[in-house]
Write a sequence for this structure.
């Protein structure tokens, strides 16, 4: 059996084809986004749609709520699906909804997407005011329940405050280092250092806007960045969070960026000229691209143990603790 | 340790006092109503309120989702709380919400309260048209998921059709035989016979409108009814479902009867002259009244095994299977 492989973020246009590619790519667990700007009720509808997929594709996927579930899925030859939100909208202004969502299987939540939320500041706001009053309550409640705080889309100060305020390690599930590719969504050395020194994890993204040279980013360049990050932060604190949005129509990236909050069209990391989803690098077009990443990591000198960690074991070890309620 | 005691229906104005009385009365598990006319979101708010109670009174109560949880609660010296609905309103017109509710701990649902629902006909309607199209789908889905169909407030034909259509035994959690006290809410011999012959259970009610002589009903009269029912239907098919609404203000019975569906005031089993909650019989004013019932059953000649069954073991055995998903 190959070492475990985990993707800490995908938001694909789910289909049997994609679930088969997960199996072909040896991907044992995927953190899937089930909500961006959805209300509580709308996000529940998305769970209902997943429940149907679990029934229809029960030979390929299964729900997972713990590291043990991920291991069980692997033993069964299925891919474990872990639910997460990219905004805090599905908890509305109601702290009690976090426990409800835990019962419904949600395990990872971003405190913000690109905008100011009720909890913290997103990376596209002009001013970053850090954790709000409710934000601190939500961090403490997520710590209590065993839910992972994800700051992938959050602004610098908010992220540093979440790391500091949280009594448990947090995550950046999908982003790259700013020193490799200075995109607004990529993270400063200061943030990644604070995150990993507190026991947190970062998942490296394969989304072209996060990559040096975008869609033309080479496997060597990506693997070299991972090697440098491993030296800086430790090979046990890093993993993959591909941000793969496979087979999605461009209307979906418009929804991700604009939700229902604006009358002016927001292009996020894109532009009016390049408004849609960018093309994936040819070595990571779908879940079978995990083979290429493993090969790339080997070529830049990682040993088998380090590769196994980065490809999945690090996330599994992190989840082992992070998904359990505080004792 | 005394034999297990289970109450298959209460809707009290929950307080530490009442949870202490559950312990004093040796009540190991209670099926509590968490929704009458509440929408999905409102019923979720009620779960949130219960989550707070579980935190505040963790020494007295705990959530339960299976017969094993009931046994664990008993071993811990706590009362197991099982969630149920008295209408189908919290699933709206959305079959997928049943699986959501199962994850949130709901285990027992009435297909109707007193009125026509999307699923079947309530006992106060002039015409009883039986299971609707959606009603049949809901019965099948509840069968699949391991949720108990409760027809306590439903009309005769609807109840008979639910018994017939369901592939698993169903329940009437709180009602009495019509032959003992011919109230509209009490059940015909035909219904109780069909129910129990199909492996279902009936819980006998201590709500005065369901009792012969109402608030003045004697323990002897009630116990005699149970003895006659045991002869007719089997001592293993009957239990207690007290319908205790302890410490509730009369505004709550008005809500139960009227919800938001009427401009004219409906008095249900009461009347304009007696609009509020009726007074409980003096031998069953709260959970400590379970001692009186056990005594009454002994006095009418039940043996210890039969008493243990009626007081709780029958419900536990029924739940053992009924709360598990179909295999």
């Amino acid at each position: 059996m190959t070492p475990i492989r985990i993707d800490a973020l995908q938001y694909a246009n789910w289909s049997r084809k994609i679930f088969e590619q997960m199996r072909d790519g040896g991907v044992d667990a995927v953190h899937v986004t089930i909500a961006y700007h959805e209300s509580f009720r709308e996000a529940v509808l998305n769970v209902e749609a997943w429940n149907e997929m679990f029934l229809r594709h029960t030979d390929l996927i299964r729900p997972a709520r713990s590291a043990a579930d991920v291991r069980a899925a692997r033993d069964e030859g299925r891919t474990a699906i872990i639910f997460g939100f990219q905004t805090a909208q599905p908890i509305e202004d109601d702290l009690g909804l976090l426990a409800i969502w835990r019962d419904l299987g949600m395990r990872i939540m971003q405190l913000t997407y690109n905008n100011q939320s009720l909890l913290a500041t997103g990376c596209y706001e002009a001013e970053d005011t850090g954790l709000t009053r409710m934000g601190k309550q939500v961090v403490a409640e997520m710590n209590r329940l065993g839910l992972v705080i994800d700051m992938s889309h959050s602004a610098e100060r908010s992220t540093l405050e979440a790391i500091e305020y949280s009594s448990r390690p947090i995550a950046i599930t999908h982003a790259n280092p700013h020193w490799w590719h200075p995109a607004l969504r990529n993270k400063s050395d200061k943030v990644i250092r604070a995150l990993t020194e507190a026991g947190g994890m970062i998942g490296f993204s394969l989304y072209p806007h996060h990559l040096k040279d975008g869609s033309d980013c080479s496997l060597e360049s990506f693997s070299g960045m991972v090697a440098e990050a491993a030296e800086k932060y430790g090979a046990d604190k890093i993993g993959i969070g591909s941000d793969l949005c496979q087979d999605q129509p461009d209307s979906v990236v418009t929804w991700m960026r604009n939700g229902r909050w604006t009358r002016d069209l927001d292009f996020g990391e894109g532009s009016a000229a390049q408004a849609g989803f960018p093309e994936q690098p040819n070595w990571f077009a779908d879940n079978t691209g995990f083979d290429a990443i493993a090969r790339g990591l080997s070529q830049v000198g990682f040993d088998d143990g380090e590769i196994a960690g980065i490809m999945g074991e690090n996330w599994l070890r992190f989840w082992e603790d992070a998904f359990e309620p505080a004792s």
